């Protein structure tokens, strides 16, 4: 069993490196907003527990065991978010902070039951994949809305930014996962996109927004 702090470090390492790859201490320190010496001493601790490959002045890497543990914490987080939205009817903008707390509950049976009640979902309410019971994550390849072309119709599949401000922005425009969006025109100057969907014939989305929306192309 690991402490709450250790679990949060593992999760941050996993998220920064997208599950594999390397992370440097400075980057981790910035993401967690924790001073470098503190991060370094935690990395030594995690390395003793065989969760992280750590050598001075070299990038960090999660070990296989570390990846698995991180994946399991993320599984608990994402299942919780799905439960809060699907079963408790909460908004997708309101579930993250609660999941941050529930993800540390040490009871596999609790989350297995949750998974079962939800019908074994593959993704969370933001479209992010839910790792399996071994902590393994299957990444889904999507396109950014900003990379789409005029005339294409796409389906909103996931959001990259899951901050409640961004999700409220989408709520105000009635944008949710599964929505079919048609690209009507693209402004060359700033790459903003005019789209239509539902009853909305002309909605202008900035490039900042389009970079954060992941879509599936319709064939
Ligand atoms: Zn979350």
From TrEMBL:
Ranges for domain HTH dtxR-type: 1-63
Short name of any one Pfam family annotated for the protein: FeoA
- What highest taxon heads this organism's lineage? Bacteria
> Mind listing the GO molecular function terms for this protein?
DNA binding; DNA-binding transcription factor activity; protein dimerization activity; transition metal ion binding
| UniProt-listed InterPro entries | DtxR_MntR_Metal-Reg (IPR050536), Fe-transptr_FeoA-like (IPR007167), Fe_dep_repressor (IPR001367), Fe_dep_repressor_sf (IPR036421), FeoA_core_dom (IPR038157), HTH_DTXR (IPR022687), Iron_dep_repressor (IPR022689), WH-like_DNA-bd_sf (IPR036388)
**Family of this protein:** Belongs to the DtxR/MntR family.
Described function = In the presence of manganese, represses expression of mntH and mntS. Up-regulates expression of mntP.
* Name listed for the protein in its UniProt record: Transcriptional regulator MntR
Q: Write down the species.
A: Limnovirga soli
């Amino acid at each position: 069993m690991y402490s709450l702090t250790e679990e949060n470090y593992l999760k941050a390492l996993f998220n920064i490196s997208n599950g594999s790859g390397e992370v440097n201490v400075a980057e981790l320190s910035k993401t967690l907003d924790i001073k470098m010496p503190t991060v370094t001493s935690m990395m030594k601790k995690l390395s003793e527990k065989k969760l992280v490959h750590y050598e001075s002045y070299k990038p960090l890497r999660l070990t296989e065991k570390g990846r698995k543990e991180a994946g399991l914490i993320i599984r608990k987080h994402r299942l919780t978010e799905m439960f809060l939205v699907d079963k408790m009817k909460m908004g997708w903008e309101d579930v993250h902070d609660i999941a941050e707390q529930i993800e540390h509950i040490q009871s596999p049976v609790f989350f297995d039951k949750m998974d079962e009640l939800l019908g074994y979902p593959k993704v969370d309410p933001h479209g992010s994949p839910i790792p399996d019971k071994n902590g393994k994550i299957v990444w889904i390849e999507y396109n950014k809305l900003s990379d789409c072309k005029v005339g294409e119709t796409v389906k909103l599949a996931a959001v990259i930014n899951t901050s409640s401000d961004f999700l409220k922005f989408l709520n105000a425009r009635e944008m949710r996962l599964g929505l079919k969006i048609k690209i009507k025109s693209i402004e060359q100057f700033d790459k903003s996109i005019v789209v239509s969907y539902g009853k909305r014939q002309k909605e202008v989305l900035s490039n900042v927004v389009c970079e954060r929306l992941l879509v599936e192309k319709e064939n």
